Please model this.
Amino acid sequence: MQINESWARLMTLFHLFLVAVIQGITEFLPVSSSGHLILLPQLTGIEDQGQTIDVAVHIGTLLAVVLYFWKDVKAALAGTLRLVQGKIDTQGAFLALCLLIATLPVTVLGFIIHMADLSDMLRSTAVIGWMMLIFGVVLYWTDQKGETTKTTANWSLKDAIIMGLWQAVALIPGTSRSGITISGARLLGYAREDAARLAMLMSIPTIIASGALLGADVALGGSALIWRDAAIAASFAFIAALLALTLMMRLLKSVSFTPYVIYRVILGFILLVIAYT
Model:
């Protein structure tokens, strides 16, 4: 009996590790974290991890991006205080305003989808396969077509609105929040590193909004064991996300987004074959 319990616990820890690492690695790479997490139970038969663990791994990735871009986050936090006072007289305040504006479309649309209970309709293997394929091609096209005339210092309210609308499309699993936002930024003329930086900064309020929406459903429930598992998953996700984010930002100095496009296209074709056969 004790051996069976130990084995079950070991498998639970492995499941947590698998979910956390997948979330951590794919959250910031343009390959769709939600798509991978949905596919995990569908393709392997592993039990769905549940909303509590989903919230936990989102918190882990949130801490990673905050730590990596702490200088920008610190400026935006200070700017938020100025913004609350009705003042947009600092760079941080303007950054906070742009982030707020950019987050509105995905927050509103996400709330509508959640309240209308439409999420399950978008979680099929076929949908994820098509989105992987289509928006992989979109990422390649915008990356090749996009100019490099703008940096993060050129971010405007107009660009924030446009990128926010692009980001909202990522509510369809398989699209990739970072990928679609980077695509929008590249089409607007931002250099690769700057496009990725803006996409990562935009992820912070988006992850907070998503976590709050999911967390509202699980905040009052859960045992001590599930909260311990959540803490373990958050820790794994934090480490994986920080490593993935650091690697991607360094590679963008010399490598385009093409490797991610190739991965998306191959995975997309595989998923479509599985879905239709």
About this structure: Residues 2-276 form one domain.
